[in-house]
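Database export, one record per block. Field names are fixed; values are copied verbatim from the stored entry.
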Amino acid sequence: MTTGNGGDTPRTTDQRLRRLESQVETLAGAVRALAEGLEPIPSQDVRQDEQAARGARTAHELLLSQGL
């Protein structure tokens, strides 16, 4: 059964949509990790470069874990 969208079945379309949603959530998490890494935290005695590196590392790990 086709849906008039290039031959995709509803199941395939649903799978693609779920995958896209998962990828968007992962990208949002990576951006959040980067932003938090760049955000100064006045109450903690952490060097800004170390905090930024930690955020970048976390973002990278999130992306790798999802194959992005």
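Remark 1: The first helix runs from residue 10 to 38.
Remark 2: Residues 37 and 59 are 10 Å apart (CA to CA).
End of record.
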